[in-house]
Amino acid sequence: MKQFFIRRVLKPLKQQLSQGVTPGKLAVALALGLVIGSVPIIGITSLICAVVAVVFRLNQPAIQVANYLAYPLQIGLFIPFFHAGADLFSAPRVTFTVASLTDELSADLAGTMGKYAAANARAVAAWAVVAPVAVVLLSVVLRVILARARLGARAAGEGRSTGPLSSDVASSPSEGH
């Protein structure tokens, strides 16, 4: 798992830093990818990230990598956002058991779809309250981490290692870069 993470996440990010992408721009792309990737709507985050990256001229691979990494976060936050949305709008919380959903769909398909669509809209509103703060905080933290990784990569190129990620991300001659 560690090798997969290094090969598929850390090395591509390091390559972006070495190709002139600033740590600040990369941090914003990653932060937006993580936050957009946690929106409580399954199946549209890649499209949203792609549009945001084009509109704001952000690094498309970085925002998509972060979006994909956020999938477990999206699933984990799904119910909490639904509850927060219900609380935010003083609405009743919806139940999420297979049995209750099946019964509701059998009894009233249109009514059930409307109920869950409204609950989903409230969940997205709750996400929208949290999202700006999360983007700012993640951007700041990621910028520091990426700046250190960049310094570490420069030092590793000079034969010394100073950054926390430099030894894990530094390229080896056998990889054919």
Note the main attributes of this structure:
mainly alpha, 0% strand, 177 residues, single chain, disordered C terminus, elongated
Task: Tell me about this structure.
- With 177 residues, this protein is mainly alpha-helical.
- Helices cover 75% and strands 0% of the residues.
- α2 crosses α4.
- Mean pLDDT is 83; it is low at 159-177.
Order of helices and strands: HHHHHHHH
User: In angstroms, what is the radius of gyration?
Assistant: 20 Å
What does the largest sheet look like? none
* Class by SSE composition: mainly alpha
For the secondary structure, the number of strands is: 0
* Cα-to-Cα separation, first versus last residue: 22 Å
Portion of residues in beta strands equals under 5%
Q: Which geometry do the CA atoms define?
A: elongated
Number of helices: 8
Question: Regions with pLDDT < 50 over 5+ consecutive residues?
Answer: 159-177
Q: What integer is the average pLDDT?
A: 83
Helix content: over 70%
